[in-house]
Amino acid sequence: MSTVFITGTSKGLGKGFATYFLQEGNQVLGFSRTEDTELTAHPNFKQNNIDLEDFDAIEQVVEKALEGITELDLVILNAGVLGEIKSMVDADISNMKNVMDVNLWSNKVVLDTLFKKGIKVKQVVGISSGASINGNKGWSGYSISKAAFNMMIKLYAAEHQETHFTALAPGLIDTGMQDYLCEKVNHEEFPSMQRLQDARGTQAMPNGKEAGKMIAKLIPSLLNTPNGSYQDVRKL
Ligand SMILES: NC(=O)c1ccc[n+]([C@@H]2O[C@H](COP(=O)([O-])OP(=O)(O)OC[C@H]3O[C@@H](n4cnc5c(N)ncnc54)[C@H](OP(=O)(O)O)[C@@H]3O)[C@@H](O)[C@H]2O)c1
Questions:
Q1: Quick one: which atom of ligand 1 is closest to the CA of 173?
Q2: Does domain 3-173+208-235 have CATH number 3.30.750.24?
Q3: Which strands make up the sheet holding 3-7, listed edge to edge?
Q4: What pLDDT is recorded for position 1?
Q5: pLDDT tens digits for 57-66?
C-alpha cells in the first residue's frame, strides 16, 4: 500500500485525487480546514485539520500526520485560493499577500517539514495553473502566486535530486473556484472569463472527481519529464 499526501482534500480537485487514490488501494493523508464525510468514512483516509495560513501550526500538524512514516510515494500540493479578480491597479496588496501565503509560502513550510524530518519523498506534484504563464487581465495575485510557485518547485528540484518535482497546470475543473469566476466576475471587464463560461458544462471542464481521476492517472508519466519543470495536463 502506498502513502499519498494531499493538501486541500475537503472538496474540488483535491477530493477527486483522494477518492481516486483510495479506490486504488492507497493510504491517503489529507489536509484541509474542513472535513469531507465521504473521505473521513474511509478506513484508509486520515484527515488532518490544518490552516495553511497559519505557518506556525503547519509544521506541528504535518509532523504529527507523519508519525511512523519514513517514506511517501507522492505528495500533491493542491490546496489553493483564487483571491480577487481585479486589475493590478485595483488589486489590494493584503488580499494578494493572503493568496501568496496559501498558494506559495505554505507549500514551502510543508516541503521543509518533510525534508527536515528526513522523509524519503519519491514524487512531488505542485498544482499550478495556466494562469501562472498567461498573464491575462484580472488574474493579479493568483497569477503571481502560481508563477512564483512554478519557480519554487524548480528550486526545490535543484536541491533535492532524489525527489521528482513537477508544477502541473490541471486544466479547467468545475469547482467552487469556477462558481466565482463564471458567476461573479464581470466578463466585459475581464474577457478571459468568457472562455471559462463557454467550457462550463462541457468535457473541457470536468468536475473534481473526473479531473482527479484523469490527472492522477497521468502522474506516473510526469517522472519522464525534466525534474522541476512546469507541465500542463492539456499538453501531456
Ligand atoms: N478549478 C480550476 O479550474 C483550477 C484551474 C487551475 C488550477 N487550479 C488549482 O487547483 C487546485 C485546487 O483547486 P479547486 O478548484 O479544487 O479549489 P476548491 O474547490 O476551492 O478547493 C480548494 C481546497 O484548498 C483548501 N484550502 C484553501 N485554503 C486553505 C487553507 N487556508 N488551509 C487549508 N486548506 C485550504 C480547501 O480546503 P478548506 O476550505 O476545507 O480548508 C479545499 O480543499 C488549486 O491549487 C487551484 O489553484 C484549479
A1: 3
A2: no
A3: 45-49, 27-32, 3-7, 71-77, 120-127, 164-169, 229-232
A4: 75
A5: 999 999 999 9
